[in-house]
Amino acid sequence: KQEVTQIPAALSVPEGENLVLNCSFTDSAIYNLQWFRQDPGKGLTSLLLIQSSQREQTSGRLNASLDKSSGRSTLYIAASQPGDSATYLCAVRPRRYSGAGSYQLTFGKGTKLSVIP
Amino acid sequence: DGGITQSPKYLFRKEGQNVTLSCEQNLNHDAMYWYRQDPGQGLRLIYYSQIVNDFQKGDIAEGYSVSREKKESFPLTVTSAQKNPTAFYLCASSIVGLAGAARSYNEQFFGPGTRLTVL
């Protein structure tokens, strides 16, 4: 059974610092990996999606990398801002081409980021 | 303005009562999903549907029921059989990739959530 782990559970950094959030998964047979942001009491906002054939994806100050063989992904946030404060979740989708579970995401518990002004 | 809407935002349930959470999307997505989120835990899949009139159980389907009569709508009923229903419920949707052809990335998009509390 796929397990997704995010370390640390919480992180506090001063404004302007570059930071890295980590995500690891136990089964490397994935179709893609998705990073989300969640503000308190809100739904999830999709940040980046990396296909299993890709090594990284970039959007603005965010860069996500994927090393499928080692079961790891990182989310790099450049020049952090107080508005980046939120919980960041990663989720993996299994490499199954049909049948039950082929679209099911397995989520980590998230990293709660606080950016201090 | 495309997106996913969930209602109500807050819902209170009495013991022994069934309640229904609404999820609507106008993204023309074929697949829809219901997740449950508890403090300190990752999201867990309750049910999902890849096409109208068809749905599959997720990891924690006991005590829940769904229907998919329309492409745009995927309501979730929390029945009295669900012993610990207090949680934050999230609905999501995605397009569905075509087997053997150009495959989509199936990125999932989420609604704003419904917080259910048992009184």
Can you put this structure into words, describing what you see?
The complex is a heterodimer of chains A (117) and B (119). With 117 residues, chain A is mainly beta. Chain A has strands spanning 4-7, 10-14, 19-25, 30-38, 44-51, 56-59, 62-67, 72-77, 86-94, 106-107, 111-116. In chain A, strands 2, 4, 5, 9, 10 and 11 form a six-stranded mixed sheet that branches. In chain A, strands 1-3-8-7-6 form a five-stranded antiparallel sheet, with no helix packed on it. Chain A starts with a strand and ends with a strand. The mean pLDDT of chain A is 92. Chain B is an all-beta fold. Chain B contains no helices and eleven strands. In chain B, strand 5 (44-51) and strand 6 form a beta hairpin. Chains A and B meet through strand 4, strand 5, strand 9 and strand 10 of A and strand 5, strand 9 and strand 10 of B.
Quick structural gist:
The complex is a heterodimer of chains A (117) and B (119). Helix content of chain A is 0%, strand content 56%.
Question: Which characteristics define this entry?
Answer:
heterodimer, A: 117 residues, mainly beta, five-stranded antiparallel sheet, B: 119 residues, seven-stranded mixed sheet, four-stranded antiparallel sheet, 0% helix, 46% strand
